[in-house]
Amino acid sequence: MPPPRRLHLDATFLFLPVFLFATWRPVAAAALSTFAMAKADTTTIVCALLPSAASPLLVDLNCTAAGGDHARQVTYPSSHPFAALAGGENFLCAVRPSGERAGDIDMRWWDLSGDGSSSSKRVYMGPPLRALSSGEYRVCGVLSSGELHCWRWRGLNISRDLRFAAAAVGDGFVCGILKGTPASIRCFGNDTAAAAVAGAPADGSFDVVAACGHRACALSTTGVLACWGHDPPTVAPDDAATGYAALALGEAGVCGLRTNSTIRCFGDGVAVPPAGLARAQFLDVRAYGKAFCGVLMSHGQYSLVCWGGPEFNATNRLVFGRVLPGPCLPMSSCQCGVLPGSANLCDDGRCVCVDCAFELNVARPNASLVPVKGGRGRKTMWIAIAAGTTAFFVFFVALQFALVLRCRRRRRRRRNEQDTSGGAQQSLMPPRVGSSRSRGPGSVVVENFMLDMLHASTDGFSDDSRIGTGSFGSVYRGTLPDGREVAIKRAEDSAKASSSVARHRDRETAFDSELTALARANHKNIVCLLGCCADSGERVLVYEFMANGTLHDQLHSRSPLAAVVSSWRGRLTIALGAARGIEYMHVYAVPPIIHRDVKSANILLDDAWTAKIADFGLSSVLDPGAGTPQEPLYTGGTVGYMDPEYYRLQHLTDKSDVYSFGVVLLELVSGCRVVQRYAESVTPKNVVEFAVPHILADDVARVLDPRLPAPTPGEAEALAYVGYLAADCVGPVGCERPSMTEVVVALERALVACGAAAPLSRASTGRRSVLSRSGTDQFDLTDTD
After folding, report:
1. Model pLDDT, residue 343
2. Catalytic (active-site) positions
3. What is the pTM of this model?
4. CA angle 425, 429, 433 (to 5 degrees)
5. Do the Cβ atoms of 526 and 449 come closer than 8 Å?
6. Options 3.30.200.20, 3.20.20.70, 3.30.2010.30, 3.30.450.20; which CATH number does 424-545 get?
7. In the CATH hierarchy, which fold is given to the domain comprising 550-784?
8. β-bridge pairing 85-88 and 620-621
9. Most confident region among 144-153, 361-370, 655-664, 757-766 by mean pLDDT
């Protein structure tokens, strides 16, 4: 295999904030793709957006040459998330926000011909795009306003009065679906493409269109597939009547992504998905030449596989093992659900939305995608209804019988356990945790582990396997039979822990609270709950293993400090990750969650140093009806981190978590323990008492951790800003503290000034970024000459 061609891409070319997608809503399949196929001379290049292994803030563009084993890949890291890609004959193009006009975007073009060393060229700057399509050596996009624009295409005339919902580019022509009812198709092109343009269907309402060479295909809203142009693929009537969500048109035929997520291909000589992928579930499919590639969904993971053409065979079908399955959007914009696990691939509380052409069971990542559209015949429909009704009746009777037996067994077991424990109430599961209907969009699947398996994986819960303690018991490190390393939290035996019924009830409450909270949470900065065990009176939770332990241990128990913790940039990155996890709990979790015990010992670090919030044993959820938190039975938290207002007045709000996080910020900046004896004091002081007076006196340098090197000017500016942010977080009045969203924004901007986002530096323009020193009154960046 020839080595992959290195694309000389500008490192700043693809930061895409939320505003780019704010007005975008796909017609069917994703109109903005996170992978692309292109040609570099005679070599086919496959590029995709992959979650970066270097930092939780990054998404990398990886490219590889088709053929071979794809072991050699070229990675183009970016300091900001990438967005969408499109490719064609000797080019790759992508978008980024404009640095000159707020709200606009740039689209840049890279020439892949020759040695590929040319720099990128801007071909467009203007309003955001909602769709992007490429073909041959041209690219067209649909603006958020609905206008269809094409670039590097002289002589093409498209009326600015027309408004489009989608578009597809072929050789010399482009076809677009008009907005409105009916959503008809209009095609535009030059003389060589006259036959393809003239063959477009004159009537009908369409929602998907694809093009390749001198032919095109479109899918009507009733599920009918029509193809036209030069030598279009032949479509059988049964195929045309099947509901499809996306089309990929290649040289030899067309492959359609059906609404049940499987792929069906037809046409003379088209490469059908091989046996291993014939019934697999896909989220997107695209074609280039005779090759097809698709985003494969399996058990909540997403990979890129290709087939067809001379480049792909049984040994090199998997191109990328883990890809971003679609553009990251605000969770609130997902009208039809959230892809399982996608919140862990996106930052800032965003996720990948489920396409409305599908109906996805969010609680089961490997669940089937259920058709929601398609032109099935009336007879088939009634047969399906009758069969479904019969199956439902049989299932309902069986379910009722099973529930009766289960309830009897549970009542018998509870009576036995009450006799053993002196009548203490023992709830095996929090209410409705096992029900998909009770979960929010980001819910995760909780496995049921057998106690024997967990016992064997920890050498019988031996002291050698014990790595720490949690809110209701000890934590052990274990290895499951499938090779996964896990952290296992086991509730202390009530006989050993305490004979008090109240103490036992507190542990039960902590177990239920943690299981309830984590079963609803799905975010890259919240520790992942894999499963639980409630056999034989045991209370056990199983989590992903965090290789780098707790932030508390990294700051106070390790010498020398690890590389990430020994740099100001690394500490701010950890702070930002933890803040995003808390923001998710407050803003995006359904219902919202208040942690109540935010501290450095409950911030875990994985092998990539991603910060994750853990230990939800004291957490409290907001009442969906009342909009207030369920008041806990007692005031919970850790001395030094606990909000004084909450401690005095017993009034719990999300600002209590903000206070605790402010203490963590001071801990990160100063390197001090939360309570310790300082040189100028005889008695121990809280870090708030020590640090805040120096910060408010504009003497942040007095509190910086002396174990770290002196900060650079940019780092000093960022640390002063973070110091003021921390002082605002630990303010005495809860309502005057910033929200966690404001904290996240402030930390992001501090990282920019600290140099973590160097591509945004304005040094090239002779200007520098200066952070406001007014704390949360002005979370902004100002420019000075």
Report:
1. 72
2. 597
3. 0.48
4. 145
5. no
6. 3.30.200.20
7. Transferase(Phosphotransferase); domain 1 (1.10.510)
8. unpaired
9. 655-664
